[in-house]
Amino acid sequence: MSLAPAPVKVFPAYARLGIPGAINECYVREGVYRRVLAAARSLPQGVGLIVLDGWRPWRVQQYLFETLMEAILGNHPDIAEDELLERTREFVAEPSTSPTGPSPHLSGGAVDVTLCDEDGLPLPMGTLFDEAIPASHTAFYEAKEAPSATEREVRDNRRLLYHTMAAQGFTNLPSEWWHFDFGDQLWAHYGGHPQALYGPAELDTIENRWRRQL
């Protein structure tokens, strides 16, 4: 896996938020790396791309899943177990390193991105990264019959991000305007591909090398 390229700004959101186990880099598969770079280079002048997250350790995925589930349960103590699981999965995949179905971010094929201006400041996208609310759905502002000027700006920014990433072969998770996939299970599902290209991934540390060699 590779670090996000220099022309792309990197803000490892989970590390900055102090989430246990989060790493202070954004790693992705090489195929994702090249497509993110191409997407950034294709943006209009004055608009850039910020990578917020890529590959995640299993511990981070578990923390996000359990924390969101607890938050939903705290606000809806009478929610049925199957609905609780469904609402949690809407925004966070269950942690899994299964060879045939790893969590997208655990494969290195998922990447979370947003747009920024020429000074590196994020453009308005309607919600913050990782807000688990209906307004985070990619098409939320498309349904507005009489959008305000601010809503039109958000809608157009989301359109630009979506079409820029799609042009490089990415698919988008409909519940998250920031989440894009290439080569993982979600990419296969939403892109109509017969199978994923990537299974679970680990960083190529000296410890992992020794384990493979021995």
UniProtKB/TrEMBL annotation:
The active site is at E176 (proton donor/acceptor). It holds the Pfam family Peptidase_M15. Its cofactor is Zn(2+). Signal peptide: none annotated. This is D-alanyl-D-alanine dipeptidase. The lineage of its organism: Bacteria, Pseudomonadati, Pseudomonadota, Gammaproteobacteria, Oceanospirillales. Zn(2+) binds at H105, D112, H179. It catalyses: D-alanyl-D-alanine + H2O = 2 D-alanine. Its EC number is 3.4.13.22. Transmembrane segments: none annotated. The record marks R56 as: Transition state stabilizer. It comes from Halomonas litopenaei. Keywords: Cell wall biogenesis/degradation, Dipeptidase, Hydrolase, Metal-binding, Metalloprotease, Protease, Zinc. InterPro entries: A_A_dipeptidase (IPR000755), Zn_M74/Hedgehog-like (IPR009045). Binds 1 zinc ion per subunit. It comes from the Bacteria. PANTHER family: D-ALANYL-D-ALANINE DIPEPTIDASE. Catalyzes hydrolysis of the D-alanyl-D-alanine dipeptide.
